[in-house]
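Re: the multi-chain job from yesterday

Posting the exact lines I submitted so nobody has to dig through the queue logs.
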Amino acid sequence: MDKLLRINMGADGGPKASEVPVGNYAGMGGRALTSAVVANEVPPTCHPLGEDNKLVIAPGMLSGTTAAMSGRLSIGCKSPLTGGIKEANAGGQPAQVLARLGYAAIILEGKPKDDTLYKIFINKDGVKITPDNSLKMLPNYDLVAKMKAEYGDKMTCLSIGPAGEMKLGAASIACTDMEQRPTRHAGRGGVGAVMGAKGVKAIILDDTGKTMRAPKDPEKFKEATKIWVKGLQAHPVTGQGLPAYGTNVLTNVLNEAGGYPTYNFKEGRFSGAAKISGEAQAELETSRGGLATHGCHRGCVIRCSGTFNDKDGHYLTKQPEYETVWAHGGNCGIDDLDVIAQLDFLDDNYGLDTIEMGATIGVAMEAGLIKFGDGQGAIKLIKEVGQGTPLGRILGSGAAVTGKVFGVERVPVVKGQAMPAYDPRAVQGIGVTYATTTQGADHTAGYAVATNILNVGGQVDPLKPEGQIELSRNLQIATAAIDSTGMCLFIAFAIMDQPETFQALLDIINAFYGLSLTADDVTALGKSVLKNEREFNFKAGFTKEQDRLPDFFKKELLAPHNVTFKVKDEDLDQVFNW
Amino acid sequence: MEKILSLTLKPDSLKTLSRFFQQGVLIKTLVGGSIQDLLIRDLGLTPEYLETRIQTIFLNGKAVDDPARAIVRDGATLALSGAMPGLVGATFRRGGTYASLRQAITLTATEEPVSEREGQVILKLFNLLVPEIGPLVLAKGFWITGKELDTFVENYPGNFWAPWAPVQVAGKDVDVQALGKTIWSPNKEETVLIKITLRPNPSL
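And the result, structure tokens for all chains:
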């Protein structure tokens, strides 16, 4: 990973690729790299769909190695949805393959002079960029089948569906999984629209002939990875809960807490929760011959995913994650897992962010387009997006735009991005992160529950109110650091509870790069990422007034606990005051 | 005299019964003591199990940090969960580092125990705790209305029921499909105690 692949899509005579040394970006990976490139090279006030924006696709520092859980991919740009900096993160195979091909990042620059659509093939022999207008408006599953037929069953694919080609704000970039299905998505912030604006339909990767990346100290690396895997498998979350029920195991707990946003954030409990819970989903999947335990990329030992078959036992989609089940389920009053699975498939196929689309359908229901609980109506609306009808394009532009068009006041967004599946009135500390993160409302921006072991910001008394601000800050720092390693965020639980597992992670990085990083260095890395992102957003016109939740969270009581969001604005302004 | 419905089911039926536990089963127990009392003394869990496996507790929807001090009153809903992933999992963990993130819905009252008496509690079990605590609850018995049992029989006909072990009401064999008529007719709102033994087919 000592080179960057820069592809100028607007070059005279057609797109031109050039390999360049990583230069000042040496040693960076994942989010650290995408955010550094965007902050350094993209004019903050540029149009997100214009030639000056760049799409940066970067594997993590440990991707392409034998270290378990290292297959996360970061995709960065200026977001068409938020207008600020964006890092969208995905699993699947591309991070591992791209890293083994030796690239620290692919950077798509410029913009084609016409509406020609391109595919980019990268293997050990180099890069081939080919115009292919036959791919226009192909949904992801059809596209990947075509690429597989053309490039073989060793290929890995990044692609956009019709939503990306239409440059919609909710457009995602699909990454193929181990079965070459386009099921893992860099979903948030409209990164698919930026790829569409660059005229790139698909990036096909093949690492045949390449080997695993070699560590500087193979013995220490091997020893550390053994301890690492043992630690992950021993922990009840990473070794039992996630493999058995997937992320949807959270449904019952959030619902019981009264923090499960229901009917477009109107209530905190959904009466149909038990029908769509992780427990119910796992039972349904296995009873139909699907899988309740499955990894999204090679080298995953947690295996929180699965496969969802239809009533006849045929593959329908991957196991919908908690956020998807909530967004299309409880948030829309839908308690039918088959309907939710169909919506998940449609989102993946058209290339849409499931959180954004679920929130958008919720807003559309609030506006009266269809009724809450109308599963078939929701399917029809998502199909409108895929077909590119005028209504579909409005919906595909996300919850904020849909709310404006239909005059809805209760629109759960921050910086234009839809809020995930935790009501900030019940879990107020997550509201602090939703409000202040550089990314727009994003639960994963403060997800790395390892601040205690990293000792980020010192020890915080968990039972003091001011802890919410401090913890959100520390979580955001820790998350930015982990996002840079290529490690899945679910590792955080094991490293929080098991010091030896955290040490193993440090040892893996150190043995691989020949470094002697400490927890302090990891913290410094996280801070530097956030600093880059904050500066970019500031120059793009963001002020502290954008670090706020929508008014209704402060005014409307959330049942059953009848609480409002109480964190003061002046406290929110202290989150990045370190 | 209370009516008792005794069932023997195959061990893997526990998965099917999971929804019952997720929605909550009615148990009759001593109320007025702490959650810890209820779980250890009345339900028979060990202190170590409570400490290590039950990571998240809700009493009437409020997150509990100290099960020894939270008092279970008559009519309460008690929900128990194993370790949960993600930030929210860590946030709801009892006494965890991230507890302040959910302080708006944390149970803060530190009431003294009141005099204990027989009462009712809705017990909910989630995720890993269903296979671990579920059999215990099934064997001790929980209360169910006729309406709930009708839905249950409707949803799980055929091979869910263990053919080698007859369903018994007050010690007498009855037909599964006729359960509703046997016990509840005409009052479907009335509750009866249901006790379930999980046992593989002895002839296999």
